[in-house]
Design goal:
about 475 residues, alpha+beta, Nucleotidyltransferase, domain 5, 7-stranded antiparallel β-sheet, 5-stranded mixed β-sheet, about 45% helix, DNA-binding, Transposase_put_N, Transposase, coiled coil
């Protein structure tokens, strides 16, 4: 989806008022349709009744019903009560209810809330009508204009100015859209007394030609240090090559500069995929997921919010891949870093970031990660005394003030696990056998029991020390 924002400049104040009246009626129609949909009304009945009620044509009413339905479905998907949706914004509405806000500050808030509540209009494109019938872009000698249908055979015109400062490239894009007769949607919004238009065009992508048939390339984007780690695997999931792309430009600079470089880095990933002839596997992240506590406490969520726009970069990779006919596979990111650092970083002598990219690639092929036998043998070989000593060491680590908070939960899980082992003398453990832990919990426990005692203050970047334990099963050296 390509979206172009522009400011509308009306030829006279009367035309602007007619457009504002249309937006007010359409917004009221959409809110009314939302209430009726909650009561179980169907689209056909609503469409027939709303046209006369709000003096809107059939297309405007249909678009209002569509927007109302999407708002309703979105509320249900997010687990919110659809009956408590507040048009105009819940945050602004709550601020208006506060008694300590009055005078000019209150009036400014009220105007902002009313603009968001009443200053909207949405008009879908139509391929059969060569663009958009209700809100059509027209090219004239003195510029590019938006023709808005405000009633039966009644139109107002507004000059399209692409942003606060005139942007010729955006205006050229709008003219190209008009000349090509492709459908485009237009959304009008009222902000600070001005009307802005958002033109949206859906791209037509070529057929997918590069698939996972010959293997994939896994992508792991890291906030610290800023880099993209990638790992190439064949169709069996074997590591064939790997590398990283540093991204120092994303650590600072203006918003426009960082956006430019995100596109450049996305192009580099696509170039690698095209050269290798392999699909791309990325982590499926959703910032709407607030974590178990609902406070965005998850490690991935913090990484998204406190570093560069992680999701934006992944979105650009997906967009460019679609344009090039490259398959993009999204996978669950859970524990990819832990599995990578414990299993593949020491095995292939690679960084934990590259190892995480390798796990992501294998997950894209549907490969499962089994816990190495020597890790299980290591835990089985521990005596009760050694388990007690290890548990005390872990408890001591918990009391270490220099320890990062994100490790505490893992360490406490490890203590719980070690206590369960102590109660089973003569046990023979299998992965998860006789325990209440999930596979992912086991990896987390293993990290706490093996990695953190080696480096309690921070996670090391070199895991070669684990190679003898993982490959040869050697342990016992203090």
């Amino acid at each position: 989806m390509i979206v172009i924002q522009a400011k509308l400049i009306f030829l006279n104040q009367e035309d602007k008022q007619r457009a504002l009246d249309l937006m007010r009626r359409w917004s009221s129609c959409m809110r009314f349709a939302y209430k009726r949909l909650l009561e179980g009304y169907d689209r056909k009945t609503l469409k027939r009744d709303l046209q006369g009620m709000f003096d809107l044509n059939s297309r405007y009413v249909d678009d209002a019903i569509m927007k109302a339905r999407s708002t309703l479905e979105s509320a249900r998907e997010l687990g919110n009560n659809p009956k408590k949706v507040i048009f105009g914004g819940r945050d602004l509405f709550k601020k208006l209810q506060k008694h300590h806000i009055n005078g000019k500050a209150y009036e400014r808030l009220k105007i902002r809330w009313q603009e968001k509540r009443k200053g909207n209009l949405y008009s879908r494109g139509d391929k059969s009508k060569k663009g958009n019938l209700n809100t059509r872009i027209e090219i004239k000698e003195n510029g590019t204009f938006l023709r808005i249908n405000v009633g039966e055979r009644k139109y107002v015109y507004a000059k399209i100015e692409a942003g606060y400062k005139k942007n010729k490239r955006r205006e050229e894009l709008l003219q190209e859209i008009t000349k090509s007769d492709i459908p485009y949607s237009v959304e009008l919004k009222l902000k600070n007394g001005s009307i802005y238009a958002y033109f949206a065009v859906e791209e037509e992508y070529p057929e997918i030609k590069i698939t996972k048939e010959k293997g994939v390339i896994g992508i792991d984007i890291n906030a610290y240090p800023d880099n993209i780690s990638w790992a190439e695997v064949d169709e069996e999931g074997n590591l064939t090559s790997y590398g990283s792309i540093p991204m120092p430009e994303l650590a600072s600079g203006s918003k426009e500069k960082r956006e430019y470089y995100r596109w450049q880095y996305a192009h580099e990933i696509i170039k690698i995929a095209k050269e290798k002839g392999k699909a791309i596997v990325i982590e499926k992240l959703d910032i709407k997921d607030k974590g178990k506590k609902g406070d965005f406490s998850g490690r991935k969520s913090r990484r998204i919010r406190h570093s560069f726009s992680y999701k934006s970069l992944l979105s650009k990779i997906k967009t460019l891949a679609k344009r090039e006919g490259i398959e993009v596979i999204e996978v669950d990111p859970s524990y990819t870093s832990i599995i990578g650092m414990l299993k593949y970083a020491p095995q292939y002598m690679i960084t934990k970031d590259t190892a995480a990219a390798y796990v992501i690639a294998r997950r894209g092929l549907g490969k499962e990660e089994k816990i190495p036998d020597n890790y299980m043998k290591f835990l089985n070989a521990l005596t009760v005394e050694e388990l007690e000593e290890l548990k005390e060491h872990v408890k001591k680590t918990v009391r270490n003030k220099k320890l990062k908070k994100k490790h505490l939960k893992e360490i406490k899980k490890a203590i719980e696990f070690l206590q369960s082992l102590e109660s089973e003398p003569g046990r023979v453990l299998k992965p998860l056998g006789g325990t209440s832990f999930s596979t992912h919990d086991f990896w987390r426990v293993l990290k706490a029991a093996v990695v953190i005692p080696l480096s309690p203050e921070k996670v090391p970047r070199d895991f070669s020390v684990l190679k003898e334990l993982l490959i040869q099963g050697k342990w016992g050296d203090p």
